[in-house]
Write a structure and sequence with these properties.
Layout (H helix, E strand, L loop, with lengths): L1 H7 L22 H11 L11 H18 L3 E3 L6 H10 L6 E21 L6 E21 L3 E7 L1
Parallel strand pairs: 1-2
Antiparallel strand pairs: 2-3, 3-4
């Protein structure tokens, strides 16, 4: 039986199911690196997570502007909803042209840098200190289609 199967059955795979490429700035993954970014790169006298809010708001506003300019759907993913199922629905109606199919938004847990109030042991004066924490934040998924590569998504958090 092995000889018969060996001569008549072949199995080939020519695609990758999933490939992840993470792009991030390693120094910004830690409170000390975030403090350096805010002080040396952005020119602030002190480091506080409140200084990140204007950058975040501008980035989110640019995402909404992109969605509006291109007439895309913004899909709010529900808890435990399979994002691939939604993508398959959009791909079923897709005409094969390259571009962004839709943008999805989901609240997911992520590592963040936050400001916490600490106290000097001697003077008991309070001061701000950056710490690493986790929080539920909006993640934006840009679901796209490329004629050579096929469907893919880019995730921003």
């Amino acid at each position: 039986m092995a000889d018969v199967l060996d001569r008549h059955v072949t199995f080939e795979i020519e695609s990758i199911d999933r490939m992840y490429c993470n792009v991030y700035q390693p120094l910004l993954q830690y409170p000390r690196g975030a403090a350096g970014f805010l002080h040396f790169h952005r020119g602030h006298q002190f480091a506080s997570s409140a200084l990140m809010a204007p950058m975040t708001k501008a980035f989110v506003a640019s995402i909404h502007d992109f969605i509006d300019r291109h007439g895309l759907d913004l899909v709010q993913f529900a808890k435990d909803q399979r994002k691939d199922t939604v993508a398959q629905q959009y791909l079923a109606e897709h005409d094969g042209a390259e571009g962004v199919l839709y943008v999805g938004r989901a609240q997911e847990k992520a590592s963040v840098v936050r400001t916490e109030r600490r106290y000097d042991r001697t003077t008991r004066a309070s001061y701000a200190w950056l710490v690493k924490a986790s929080a539920l934040v909006n993640h934006f998924y840009f679901y796209c289609f490329d004629t050579d590569f096929g469907p893919f998504f880019i995730k921003f958090l």
